[in-house]
Amino acid sequence: MARDTGFPEADAENDFQRMRRQAELARLTQWFTRQPADVNAILPFDEVVAALGRAGESYLGLQTVEVTSIVGSVDRTKDFDRYFRPTSARIRSRWQRLAAAQRRGESMPPVRLYRIGGMHFVIDGHHRISIAIARHLDTIEAYVTEIHTRISPEGINVPGDLLLKDHRRLFLSRVPLSGTQADTIRFADPFDYAELAEAVEAWGFRLSQEVGEFLGRTEVARRWFGEEFLPVIRMARRADVRSELDSDAELYLWLACERYRLVRKHIWDDEIIDELREQPRRRRR
């Protein structure tokens, strides 16, 4: 790391130039190593909230926040990358003015952040956070508002992860499982959530016809998990129809699709499971 010169304006200029070089080097590295295009993209707050579903908020007041937990922005997603390095020289003037003022010892107000899980999103203070990172500061003072969401934000690292979260949220609105039952249903392919939702709704329709009364989504979800999903997974395990690459949900969906393709029936028994065991394991897409 370059030594400070002791001249605030010169050191601020050097900091900005270093951050810009790092941003461009990261872009080149991403291109040469063929990493996903969004690997260095800042997370957009509105899209994250839309994918997770907003359930409320709580004002937490003044907090000391780790700079590394700040990964997103409300409205400045084009000016900074994921690590708050400036993406162009357009903001140079203001950035260097604030950086020089901080080096002269001038006080700065706390930034304002939204918190979702362990992530923070900037409402106000993008330049100050970028400067803090340039100066290798570990924490920053911030007024924090926590956003409560309908599903967990765990696993969000890049904007591309939001599609999976969005489909999971929609699935749980159609098949309202909760707790460990909801945690059991996990897919790597976001569109598998839609396919399973269709299957559960069809199962619920057949059950309503069988019992002669309308069953709501919550009741269908509860009975599907206990009367359909768990028995099928247990039979599959006994028959050793399993792959280390599959979650239980992926295994169930594959079994259900193959069963209907082979026998055109909505029943389960050992004979069908044995027949499915002989089928080559292949993705539907």
TrEMBL record:
SUPFAM superfamilies: ParB/Sulfiredoxin. This is Chromosome partitioning protein ParB. It comes from the Bacteria.
